[in-house]
């Protein structure tokens, strides 16, 4: 999914929301695909809202507010700058940054973790001599491994968890072996790719300010929202989070890229229309009869063709939200990592 970019001929007084929609090429592509599919299936717009997984949309809405609040607070940037000076060698610093990226992605989602860690990594150029580009690559891999651990780490997990009936802890337990194996692999590679040479830190780099009140507000609202998700009351959780930020930090609500929700809604509708195509119904119905190795390869393969989130939406129409599916689409995400969820 491409990053949102504004066209040069944007009208200055045009609402920001509309400007973002005009610049989001992936959303425009989804609309065109939906229009095209509508010519080949029965035109029934009344069925489209039912095709949208509203649990996922509501959960994403709450997470987008919370993660934007954490991002705007500046806390992790300040904390990271203070902590990196404690590492004497390039290898130890690199492993700390990789572990930090993975940890943040478990509760901030993979893209927001990168939005926090990557600017800090770029700042390291002014603090010490370290191969920044190589480190960013490892961080991008680490957020994938970390985000697959929890139900809220990435969109495909939100989808699968919402339909699985598992508790928050139960989902983590089933994903822990895969996340652990991936992180051990990345840490081993990190150990080999970054030497143990001593680092010399420069002085004079100004530490940015952070907003303590916003940090504590985010923490409190995070706890409330996670409890609401566990109790299957995600809508009430979203209402509390939205009202909280509206009263305490309205800038958070205004800074969220709400067009991302429209992108997900369009994906759900497009996949619904795709499953209605007579030419594909026979082929897609065979997915439910695949063996476990067949489903594993199909899920990973689809992730390469249409990316991991649309492939998860499609496959959940034919197979249960199993451990195998959760592992497969997350492994597929390691190879194909959509631009919207990465640097």
UniProtKB/TrEMBL annotation:
Name all Citrate transporter-like domain ranges.
Answer: 39-318
What are the UniProt keywords, alphabetically?
Membrane, Transmembrane, Transmembrane helix, Transport
Where in or outside the cell it occurs: the entry states: Membrane
Q: How does the record say this protein sits in the membrane? A: Multi-pass membrane protein
A GO biological process of this protein is:
transmembrane transport
Any one annotated GO CC term:
membrane
Q: Where are the transmembrane segments?
A: 26-45, 51-72, 93-117, 171-194, 214-229, 235-253, 260-280, 318-337
From which domain of life does this come? Bacteria
Q: What's one Pfam family here?
A: CitMHS
The protein, known as:
Transporter
Gene behind this protein: ybiR
